[in-house]
Amino acid sequence: MKTFLVGGAVRDKLLGYPSSEKDWVIVGANPKTMEEQGFIPVGKDFPVFLHPQTREEYALARTERKTGHGYAGFTFYCAEDITLEEDLRRRDLTINAIAEDEQGNIIDPYNGRRDLEQKILRHVSPAFAEDPVRILRIARFAARYHHLGFRVAQETLALMHAMVVSGEANHLVAERVWKETQRALGERSPDIFIHVLRDCGALACVLPELDRLFSVPIHQDMNNASQKDNNAGSHALVSLQQASRLSPEAIARFATLLHPLNEHSGAADDSLHKSSAIHHLCERIAAPKDYRELALIVAEFHARSHNARELEPDVLLNLLVRTDAFRRPQRFDNFLLCCEAIARSDNTTLADYPQANYVREILRACQSIDLKAITAKGLTGKAFGDELDQQRLAKIHDMRSQIKD
């Protein structure tokens, strides 16, 4: 029985890149042996165990055989005679097929260290094509390591494209698509995730609403030197880049990325129909409710935020109410951050976004209203709401006057 550290922990250690998770592989053992030593079985599809003290995951060395489509279409074989090299061969990338033994020696049967040095994301074997989730994983790794100069090997990109053409990518399940997308949005360069999916043709399969944006021409701001293509898809990616500079939160980056779907979905003027593209995308990839809600309000109201200083009191109050700013201040802050990212994508030389502070001052003024005093007047129900609205409008009017003066 031998223990090896494998995968991301070894890869990032060799890169000098921060890593928090450790994965272990056991060679020469069986489930009974593991349990006798106190390991806790947790694997459903194949033997995975938690260490009795560290609670880190230890998996028995295994091989796999394709039996159907998609991520779940495999059978696994675990036995004491499975070698480390056999286990590593089933992994996606050469840089993830490196192991370290208990003495610190590196085992690298598929030249992963060479690809780390050359900054290449390359598949280990043709078996890569059997699991469509790997398309998303490679795009995510490209987003993580882009700033270090990593690129996807041409032969790997070609294999990913072949998986799309063969229809294997159509068997991606929503939960896996969302898991990889959410993780990619949290990476250093999330726009690269979209670029790689588009380069191999998978974007049209996974996020068709976004893919269609690249064929929608838009007017290009001549001051925006970073926007190379005059289409809505490129604009969305520049917005995503700006959001990534402003916030590490995947939810804000997601909402910013989707904002052009409102304007360029090809639907009617009615906001319910215009936002259907966002609804459909979120439902298909199982995006959580809070992600969907923020994306919808950013798509519908970002233009009002840009023009906040010119809005009349009733329109400003409507903005606060429709975005639920009074009850959900954290989401409203994310909304304003997304609006700033969009504004910066229209003009990458923008020094600041004063509209955000202006709207926050308006909100604070409205929040200063004494609700108990309204209740003391004996007002309830609609009468209470009408009185509150009138006082809010008065506060907004006073704030606008003060700021203009």
Provide a compact summary of the structure.
Helix content is 54%, strand content 9%. It contains 21 helices and 11 strands. The strands form 3 sheets. It has a 7-stranded mixed β-sheet. The protein has a two-stranded antiparallel sheet with strand order 6-7.
- Which stretches are low in confidence, meaning pLDDT under 50 for 5 or more residues running? 267-274
> So, CATH architecture of the domain at 1-110?
2-Layer Sandwich
Outline, from the CA principal axes? elongated
Distance between the termini: 79 Å
Q: Give the CATH superfamily of the domain at 1-110.
A: Beta Polymerase, domain 2
Structural class of the secondary structure composition? alpha+beta
Helix content: 40-55%
Number of helices: 21
Number of strands: 11
The CATH class assignment of the domain at 1-110 is: Alpha Beta
Widest β-sheet, arrangement of strands: 3-4-5-2-1-8-9
Q: How would you describe the overall organization of this protein?
A:
This protein is α+β, with helices and mostly antiparallel strands. The protein has a domain at 1-110: Beta Polymerase, domain 2 (2-Layer Sandwich), CATH 3.30.460. Helices cover 54% and strands 9% of the residues. It contains 21 helices and eleven strands. The protein has helices spanning 8-15, 31-36, 84-89, 112-118, 133-145, 154-166, 174-185, 190-199, 203-206, 208-213, 232-246, 250-258, 260-264, 271-274, 276-284, 289-306, 313-322, 329-346, 354-367, 371-376, 381-404; strands at 2-6, 23-27, 40-41, 48-50, 57-60, 62-66, 74-78, 99-100, 106-107, 120-121, 151-152. The chain has a seven-stranded mixed β-sheet with strand order 3-4-5-2-1-8-9. A two-stranded antiparallel ribbon has the order 6-7. A hairpin with a 7-residue loop joins strand 6 (62-66) and strand 7. Helix 11 packs antiparallel against helix 12. The radius of gyration is 26 Å and the shape is elongated.
